[in-house]
Amino acid sequence: MYETGKPMVLEELELDQPGPGEVLMRIEATGVCHSDAHYLTGDLIAKTPIVLGHEGAGIVEAVGEGVTAFKPGDKAVLLWRPRCGNCEYCLAGRPALCPLGRSHGQKNELLRGGTRLSKDGVRYHHLMGDSCFAERAVVSQESLVAIDQDVPSEIAAIVGCAVITGMGTVMNCMPEPAGKSIAIIGAGGVGLAAVIGAQLVGAAQIIVSDVVDSRLEKARELGATHTINSAEEDFAERVKDITGGGAHYVFEAIGKQTTIRAGFGALRSGGTLVVAGLGRTQDDISIPLNHLVQGEKRIVGSLYGSSNIPLQLPEILRLYRSGRIPLDKLLDQSFPLARANEAIKHLRTKTVGRLVLVP
Length: 359
Ligand SMILES: [Zn+2]
Ligand SMILES: [Zn+2]
Known about the structure:
This protein is of the alpha/beta class. It has helices at 34-41, 88-91, 99-107, 153-173, 189-200, 213-222, 235-243, 257-265, 289-294, 309-321, 340-349, and strands at 14-15, 22-31, 50-51, 56-63, 75-78, 117-119, 122-126, 136-140, 144-147, 181-185, 205-210, 226-229, 247-252, 267-275, 298-301, 331-335, 354-357.
């Protein structure tokens, strides 16, 4: 990506050898996420030129000095937030909040500084330390989680962002969910993964809203008990009807003011709204104060499923391998890298589940 508002360009770049603590990955699959689209539109800001892509999986081809946890041939998932392992958040099992991971992401560099991508002497930037809309990527070892060889690469890729965000948010931010109601706003990759999570934890009512009927159909296939096309019906009113007063939990997977307000309006007293959608950098929200206080409602943000990723990602893959969660049903079509721009366009209305780029 050279600038916002313009399509990505497919071209050949120079990739440095992995430095100390770094790993050269051959990318086998990369999910196409709304966050990538947000950088293209300018809703989220990155340094350019930059290679997008942050939901990938692949095979280790080479390791830099001092890397002992990975060797050539290993399979791994790329994470979009590396962790230092030593700060208060890493030690508390909340690696997504690691300040080092965040600051390197904002610089669009790798954890140890600088970029490993260039062309004709110009340095190109990394998106979230990954840049996996590419055949190969050099990443920090802290951006990887090793997985078993027999996990299909498309599945491994989407687990690294959409699945762990959707399922993790339900499992980590919604205590005692069995028998309760969970309403999910947005049936994209994250929202559909949340449906799988809600089904797994035993929610009695799983209500899903979107404006695309084929996505709602997919949500029902995955375990939604009710669906709402919010272009035609009032989300909050319908949720109140279905649940007899409002949902115990609402999961907002879009990141827009209107949907966050609608989510708050759909809570029962004592309920919790979890916002996991990433909005435009400059946006804020307003909510009716009296309902917040008198209804003892809670609004919490959740990043990366609030997951302890190195532990929970393998747990999710174990659930997948034992047949407990149908992650295959989250996969939409696969495209080659040459169709990356088309894939981004499909995100808005056409994809059902996750579209994956296969280099
Ligand atoms: Zn993502
Ligand atoms: Zn840390």
